[in-house]
Amino acid sequence: MKTIIEPFKIKSVEPIYFNTKEERIAILDKACYNPFLIHSDDVLIDLLTDSGTSAMSSDQWAGIMKGDESYAGSPSFFRFEKVVQDITGMPVVIPTHQGRAAEKILFSILGGKGKYFISNTLFDTTRANIEFSGAEGIDCLCEEGKHPSIPAPFKGNMDIALLEKTIAQKGAVNIPLVIITITNNSGGGQPVSMQNIKEVKKVCQKNKIPLFIDACRFAENAYFIKLREEGYCDKPVKAIAQEIFSHADGCTMSAKKDAFANIGGFLAMHDNVLAIKCRNLLVITEGFPTYGGLAGRDLEAIAIGLNEVMEEHYLQYRIRSIEYLTNKLIDAKVPVMQPAGGHAVYLDAKEFLSHIPADQYPGQALVGALYIEGGIRGVEIGSLMFGKYDEYKKLVPAPMELVRLAIPRRVYTQSHIDYVAEVIIEVFNNRHAIKGLTITEEAPLLRHFTAKLKPVLKSPEESLPKNKQVLTYK
Ligand SMILES: *Cc1c(COP(=O)(O)O)cnc(C)c1O
Q1: Cβ partners under 8 Å of residue 422, min gap 6
Q2: 201-234 pLDDT per residue, tens
Q3: Cα–Cα distance between 334 and 328 in angstroms, integer?
Q4: Residues whose beta carbon lies within 6 Å of some atom of ligand 1
Q5: Average confidence (pLDDT) over 462-468
Q6: Omega prior to 96 cis, within 30 of 0
């Protein structure tokens, strides 16, 4: 087999600004050891997220020019609506400015105190929207999904027995819906099998609970099904995607992922009664139903991107590029989530920095080290993002301490990826010198976005956070 090449040519380029290690040490310190607070022109390779960072195609840019900006009834909306209906089979299509806006609308209506939403793993904004409504989110991830180093084909699957048990415990009437995240972003970008989706649907049907899909990476998930699940190797990706959605009652999607758009999202469903409530809220928070939170040009770019993402040469290159980096790291004995996920490489920071305890945020410490060594920006998915405090203000750590290096779609070439591998391996070889961190400032929700941290000093006394300031939102 020959090298799998990037299935595109480059027409327009953006410069990378180089800086030195000394400069990066100062920049990270100024950003309080939080990569979200670094200016992006101080970053060499930005793997913070694959969200909204895709390179759009020339067709998408042409679509941007064709976008019709009418307040009501724009033809751009009808093109967008048709594409979403075609893929999902869902008649109701509600455009929103991002995935979280779709979540906000859905969970404001269905959530509230005493309600539970069950998922394989809720993404952070999804969980935050659920909790903000007063409801509770429960993750029922399969056992193999919880062990980064054990490879399995569908580590995003739900644990069906646990799902049934949880429904029995909480009561089906208190569960407005079950939502499966495909691929499972917070659980390593791991796919969910068609078999699992069918089994979840069966449990939902038995309990009269609607099934929704968090569809941000539906095409990557569909391609994994094609590669790994029996009976799908000859099926076109689009047909697989359509089959996935045929088992669902609705979906939320961020178009900033598998639609190659820089902004956008939508909510789609079968239920016309729920749709009326959603649209009522949409008009207050996003906009008129034929544009939602988007410009006509964005609707065009999304409609085109949704079809481009299902092209198999693209998906083959996409999945291969993640696997290429993952395999290079495995060869160097770097602890990574296995097998490779769909959109990102996940370093297992608990293993990587085994000398740093969870309450000193090993994931965040690793993120800082990668930035200093090579100007690479990743994100912690561990106790900073998902940790909670118990009644004694002691940290209850997240189950995994991961560092996600998300690969933007169609943006970086193989030599960029080779450089990333070299930097990670260099950091791994010098890992014992890396120190833990302590939080000096944090917000009550989604604290990882704004938290300020500082390195833990040697004596325990010095490592106590002084002027710890907890911000509270009303
Ligand atoms: C990005 C993402 C969201 C939220 O979408 P935004 O467009 O960032 O608001 C929800 N779920 C998953 C799985 C995501 O990856």
Answers
A1: 374
A2: 999 999 999 999 999 999 999 999 999 999 999 9
A3: 9
A4: 51, 98-100, 123, 125-126, 181, 185, 214, 216, 254, 256-257, 265
A5: 49
A6: no
pLDDT at 233: 97
| CATH assignment, 58-308 | 3.40.640.10
* Atom 11 of ligand 1: nearest residue by CA position: 123
- pLDDT, tens digit (0-9, with 9 covering 90-100), for 58-104: 999 999 999 999 999 999 999 999 999 999 999 999 999 999 999 99
Nearest to 446 by CA among 214, 217, 111, 132: 132
CA–centroid distance, 254 to ligand 1, in Å, is 5
CA of 130 to the centre of ligand 1 (A): 14
Tell me: pLDDT of 461 over 60.
no
Ligand 1 pocket test, candidate residues 97, 98, 125, 346, most atoms within 8 A of CB: 125
Cα separation of 93 and 108, whole Å?
Answer: 18
**Residue 444: is the preceding peptide bond cis (ω within 30°)?**
no
If we measure between CA atoms, which residue out of 344, 375, 346 comes closest to residue 40?
375
In tens, the pLDDT along 418-433 reads: 999 999 999 999 999 9
CA of residue 343 to ligand 1 center, whole Å: 13
The total of other beta-carbon atoms located within 10 Å of residue 295's CB is: 19
Q: Where are the beta strands (DSSP E) in 83-210?
A: 92-96, 116-119, 136-139, 177-181
> 21-50+312-456 and 58-308 share one CATH topology?
no
Domain assignments of the chain as residue spans, ordered by start: 21-50+312-456, 58-308
According to CATH, the topology of domain 21-50+312-456 is: Aspartate Aminotransferase, domain 1 (3.90.1150)
pLDDT tens-place string over residues 141-200? 999 998 888 899 999 999 999 999 999 999 999 999 999 999 998 888 999 999 999 999
Distance CA 344, CA 341 (A): 6
Number of the ligand 1 atom closest to the C-alpha atom of 264: 7
pLDDT digits (tens, 9 = 90+) for 226-279: 999 999 999 999 999 999 999 999 999 999 999 999 999 999 999 999 999 999
Residue located via tokens 């000394």: 22
